[in-house]
Specification:
Belongs to the LysR transcriptional regulatory family. This protein is an alpha/beta fold and about 300 residues long. Helix content is about 40%, strand content about 25%. The longest helix has 28 residues.
């Protein structure tokens, strides 16, 4: 029975009940009243019940009509909501977006982009995934995140990429450290230091450091710990170490910790940011996010050549 009842019949029956007249329903729909009356009569025959009492001034819903039409109205309202939501998601104004990060968005361009995206698309459920770079690539390939923001040397491989902007590499240390008196540092200043690096982006920073010190001379003592950047920063005044980090990681305050730029022959040492995603990902929310990233795209200095890992 359900398959034989047309949606248009249900809609016209609901409108007739609301208007209290086949004539008024026909005028509202722009069709003859007889068409509405005929469809309602056909529905009554299919159901085996009388939905309306007819009288000279119009129609009056029966008890059976009220019991039948109330849930039908609710179902059609829910269907309309589903259709509206589907259109909204298709336009990228709703839905979900999963962003993979291993650099903090505590300050800088990335934070600005995330703010602007959330303001422009408040109904998109943005989920953030933090993890080591290799883990983010695995999740990207598996489709569990839509886009990964990566820093430094990057081979595109199977991914689409868009270069974004460059940010400074900084050295963090305790305010009492012997290098704290210098306004800026050079890479050579780090040759005799003890450097504590955590998990990602620790390996990329290590490779960058060693590539800048590959000439003859002393190399710093580099110690790796599987801890996050905040943990590393909290240990600097205890361990008397220094650490490397990206400019975006400096938004959070750490008592007793100061930051110094590392400069080279061209000025501040910079690293490029990239966004990478899978070409076949057709999530409309992702496309809007990529468009916003492109709007913030800035000049990049080519990263210093480093040894592939």
């Amino acid at each position: 029975m359900i398959r034989s009842i047309e949606m248009v019949t249900l809609l016209q029956t609901l409108i007739a009940a609301e208007q209290g007249s086949f004539h008024k329903a026909g005028m509202l729909l722009g069709i003859p009243a007889s068409t509405v009356s005929r469809r309602v009569r056909s529905l009554e025959n299919q159901l085996g019940v009388r939905l309306f009492d007819r009288h000279r001034h119009g129609i009056r819903p029966t008890a059976a009509s009220n019991a039948f039409l109330k849930p039908i109205r609710r179902i059609l309202d829910e269907l309309n909501t589903v259709l509206i939501n589907a259109k909204t998601i298709a336009r990228g104004k709703a839905g979900a977006l999963h962003i993979g990060l291993y650099v903090s968005p505590s300050t800088g361009q990335l934070r600005t982009v995330l703010h602007e995206y959330k303001n422009a698309f408040p109904n998109v459920d943005v989920q953030y995934v933090e993890g080591e770079r290799s883990l983010l690539m695995e999740r990207l390939n598996a489709g569990s995140i839509d886009v990964a923001i990566v820093v430094g040397h990057f081979r595109s491989g199977m991914h689409d990429i868009v270069p974004l902007w460059s940010e400074k590499i900084l050295v963090a240390m305790a305010a009492t450290h012997s290098l704290a008196d210098k306004a800026t540092l050079t890479w050579d200043d780090l040759r005799t230091e003890h450097i504590l690096l955590g998990r990602d982006p620790g390996p990329e920073l290590r490779d960058h450091l060693l590539s800048r010190l590959n000439a003859s001379g002393d190399l710093p003592a580099i110690r790796h710990s599987h801890i996050g950047r905040d943990f590393v920063l909290s240990l600097l005044d205890i361990e008397s170490d220094v650490t490397l980090l990206y400019e975006a990681d400096t938004g959070a305050q750490h008592p007793g910790v100061i930051y110094r730029e590392v400069v080279d022959d061209e000025g501040p040492s910079l690293v490029p940011y990239f966004a990478c995603w899978i070409t076949s990902n057709d999530n409309p929310a992702l496309q809007h996010f990529l468009d916003l990233l492109r709007q913030h795209k800035g000049p990049q200095r080519q990263p210093h050549s480093i040894r592939p890992r």
